[in-house]
Write a structure and sequence with these properties.
Blueprint: E1 2-10, H1 33-48, E2 53-63, E3 74-80, E4 87-96, H2 100-104, E5 108-117, H3 121-127, E6 131-146, E7 150-160, E8 171-172, E9 179-186, H4 191-203, E10 209-210, E11 219-220, H5 224-239
Antiparallel strand pairs: 1-5, 1-9, 2-3, 2-6, 3-4, 4-5, 6-7, 7-8, 7-9, 10-11
């Protein structure tokens, strides 16, 4: 299994019930929501200098019973549905780094272990005594680029799946809600540099959204509507 430490800088606001993602937030709750998402995409396109990638991720959360260890454990089975042949990954996300040093950081640092898996991995975990806690579908887009560190920005809508594995029946947990994440892998020796790279990049998004680590309430920037209108106007002007 591949192991790495990831830093997360995410837009935070109200949590979505029964969905265990790093953080879940509304970009907007008014009719301008779609415009704000489109404006964010335009801004990211210009900042990252790469084309966006479509995001369609089926995620299953599995929890073990206590008789498999001293404490119950949780793993995620993640399937990338955008691939010609859907690929599965087993992922374990550890707890956040704690202590006085962690409190001073502008991002959340946590350990992540993941490994590619075959399509019958779910059957294996059932055999080991794990049970399905919930499953969800994330749909949106992402940008992957290099800027002081290999950074990934994702903007997605979290959907619940009402029937077992019925991805086609997925519906938004809360309409109008978007999850925005800025993440990057790091090691114990260079996480300060990566934290700085992630924080510095995220400041460029300030005209539309304020980003922070979970637990710090921020949200849509007061200038969001004006900035979105300006970005949309500039794009239309370039197309003329």
């Amino acid at each position: 299994m591949a192991s790495s430490t990831s830093v997360f800088l995410v837009l935070t606001e109200d949590a979505i019930e029964n969905v265990d993602s790093p953080v879940k937030v509304p970009l907007s709750t008014d009719p301008y929501q779609e415009v704000l998402v489109e404006a964010l995409e335009i801004l990211l396109q210009g900042l990252c200098g790469v084309n966006k990638e479509a995001l369609r991720i089926h995620e299953l959360c599995l929890k073990s019973s206590r008789n498999l260890g001293f404490v119950a454990s949780e793993v995620r089975l993640v399937c990338d549905l955008e691939q010609p042949e859907p690929t599965w990954t087993v992922r374990h996300v550890g707890g956040a780094m704690k202590g006085a040093g962690a409190d001073q950081l502008s991002v959340l640092v946590r350990t992540m272990v993941e490994s590619k898996a075959s399509k019958n991995a779910l059957r294996l975990f059932y055999t080991l005594g794990y049970k399905l806690e919930y499953e969800q579908l994330r749909v949106g887009f992402s940008f992957k680029f290099q800027r002081g560190a290999p950074i990934t920005v994702t903007v997605s809508c979290v959907n619940k799946i009402p029937k077992l594995h019925a991805v086609e029946d997925a519906v938004p947990v809360t309409p109008g809600i978007q999850l925005v994440e800025v993440t990057a892998p790091t090691t114990d020796s260079d996480y300060n540099d990566v934290v700085q790279a992630v924080s510095s990049f995220s400041e460029y998004l300030a005209p539309l959204i304020h980003l922070s680590k979970p637990g710090v309430s921020t949200g849509v920037a007061p200038t969001a509507k004006t900035a979105a209108a300006s970005l949309m106007s500039d794009v239309k002007g370039l197309k003329m």
